Amino acid sequence: MVLRLDYRQADFESRFAAFLTTKREVSVDVEADVRAIIAEIRARGDEALHDYSQRFDRIDTRTLGLAVSAKEIEAAFEAADPEIIAALEFAHDRIFSHHSRQMPKDDHYVDALGVELGSRWTAIEAVGLYVPGGTASYPSSVLMNAVPAKVAGVERIVMVVPARNGVLNPVVLAAARIAGVSEIYRIGGAQAIAALAYGTETIRPVAKIMGPGNAWVAAAKRQVFGTVGIDMIAGPSEVLVMADPDNNPDWIAADLLAQAEHDVGAQSILITRDEAFGAAVIDAVERQMATLGRGDTARKSWADYGAVIVVPDWEAALPLADRIAAEHLEIATDDAEALAARVRNAGAIFIGRHTPEVIGDYVGGSNHVLPTARSARFSSGLSVLDYVKRTSILRLGSEQLQSLGPAAITLAQAEGLDAHARSVSIRMNQRGEGPDGGR
Amino acid sequence: MVLRLDYRQADFESRFAAFLTTKREVSVDVEADVRAIIAEIRARGDEALHDYSQRFDRIDTRTLGLAVSAKEIEAAFEAADPEIIAALEFAHDRIFSHHSRQMPKDDHYVDALGVELGSRWTAIEAVGLYVPGGTASYPSSVLMNAVPAKVAGVERIVMVVPARNGVLNPVVLAAARIAGVSEIYRIGGAQAIAALAYGTETIRPVAKIMGPGNAWVAAAKRQVFGTVGIDMIAGPSEVLVMADPDNNPDWIAADLLAQAEHDVGAQSILITRDEAFGAAVIDAVERQMATLGRGDTARKSWADYGAVIVVPDWEAALPLADRIAAEHLEIATDDAEALAARVRNAGAIFIGRHTPEVIGDYVGGSNHVLPTARSARFSSGLSVLDYVKRTSILRLGSEQLQSLGPAAITLAQAEGLDAHARSVSIRMNQRGEGPDGGR
């Protein structure tokens, strides 16, 4: 049974607070296993990759090769349904165009004292992109992870994807071609993450690893963090829908189920001002669930983590929405734009009755990799910023050193750092002694 | 003895590669201890904080109170050396002014199909700032962590600082006052991190925790990550100086020692085109070391991790600099500006003979919290971006849904997600049925 909460009930706050802390992820302790796999890859490189692929994916990469060849990629692209290719290209162009607006600008200026300051953005040289196998192998995620890298100017985009029994999803390969992925290897699991972080004979290492994966992949990303950068560790997906009773309950039910069908840990929440509307949506969910290919997953997610919250007015709902800090927030009300402007914590907001969250999953143009599990309180969705880094630049001449030096010396001395103080004072006391006189 | 490498030697590449992977941090396994401390704070709140403070810091917070009072802060400010206060205020104003340029701008536009897209930046509501006790208790770090939060518009900036034997550094309190820190608690260690993440009776939880700390603090930050955001886990500091023989060896030696005196794990590297100049700098380092208050620390750091690398020309040095990816890079050469433009991986670059890195530690205006241990390959120094988060916004009317819907349905079906497809198709097939007709 889906959870029902009513704001006007005396115990609402305690029930809502408990609901917020519900853990939706099963923790699997694979730390030690993963540590051993990483050590093997570091010690034996390609040979270890071959052995793990044989064992876990039942595929002979010694014969097939670790790299997916250009010919294989071409063949997958040619064999794919032209309608799917067209949809991927449509999505690609919209994602590329939107992300092009995100490229941060360099800044360089001279302040009133003549000090030159700058911020310079450069692309990360090489990134790895993990693509899961099986049912979670989404071509749309290939676009969402690779396109911002391309926009940022990353030179090497290295994709890894497990080929269970030798099989690769041709649509995933087609998406990689469309997105401009540079290299693809048919490997997965913790061993693929280790290969990306440390390199092997065949695979040159990358500087940052992106993309979702199972518990082994997540643990491996955590363990190699520091040697390489990683993106967020994504949790199960969630949607919060704020809908008034004027909506068609079937539309809203479809949106809730679109989250629920992802994963048994996914979460779908409806906030409404009308109890009867809430009941109608619950009925529609039950009805629609029966017809879904992944109905069992959706049913479990909805029963375990779904919720319908009735509020007296939207004023009461806003603080709840900020506390939920949903990955996806749909606002299907008359004054949706005004309400959206007042929400502080959400990964993405979908405004109005004709903006189902699913549009954002594929073709809206914005990124579908968004902060899950309340992390929208402190983090953002994937963007070009995740593929660049900033170098700050400072330049003083001897005049500027005379202006700034005394305060630096005072603070260095206050912190007990003699060499810090000397590094400034030695230059101030030998003013103009440098070979270039001033600057 | 400091390591000397010569680019022209046959074994240079293997020796340089080995040098790059030198681990400079002592790993202390405190995971289990920290897990127990966090559990205690979650279970017993303030009472557990009082107990730990008594035990680890020998201070009776039951009597003194966890919070540092406004009166105490005022008293520290009044008692501090006016020259230090003036230097802190000078530094504050320069940091504030520089960081004000970093505030990202919202973006909102309507594309050719009539789809509205937006990116909206909002401040994180509350951040915690860890300030270490003892010799690593730096007032300058309080400014560097708190000022960008203030610029971003963070409402609550909550500082924690251990008061060993009841003693707090008055200059740290003064810096907090100048930076506009909202609350200060006299607690430290893993227990302080747990209190910030989960809250206690006295301390309301924050959404993100920043600031350096010892092994316990670092482990606690890793363990609470997810519940709250964290900044990078800072490693020991490093500087790379590229200097030609026209420099005064004493100036360069002072800069190398300014890193080395921080920590026995700090690293100071000189790249020069002239072996004799390298030898002169090494002599100057030895001479200056004897006169430093923290000479023992500097001596150990220099002997264990210092290096002088001789290259035939700057062309050869650039790829080495990118592989080192130094936290701080000083370029003291004739063509410093041109060389700097060609460096890709560095946290901050200090250009010319009159820009010692120490200026950036205190009064340059840029942030001194920078990526360590080669992580400048994939990450950036602290900035206003670390205190804000982005919400993406999407709005379609029924016309736009007709344009984008078919591709979304095609991709949803290709991914086997029925409810995704239905969430779009149900709206397309009932065009205009929503109560607002179009949008």
UniProtKB/TrEMBL annotation, chains A, B:
Reaction(s) catalysed (UniProt annotation): L-histidinol + 2 NAD(+) + H2O = L-histidine + 2 NADH + 3 H(+)
Binding note for cofactor: Binds 1 zinc ion per subunit.
UniProt keyword annotation of Protease present: no
GO molecular function: histidinol dehydrogenase activity; NAD binding; zinc ion binding
Residue sites binding Zn(2+) per the record: 259, 262, 361, 420
Domain of life, source organism: Bacteria
PANTHER family: HISTIDINE BIOSYNTHESIS TRIFUNCTIONAL PROTEIN, HISTIDINOL DEHYDROGENASE HDH
The protein's name in its UniProt record: Histidinol dehydrogenase
Organism whose genome encodes this protein: Hoeflea halophila
Gene that encodes the chain: hisD
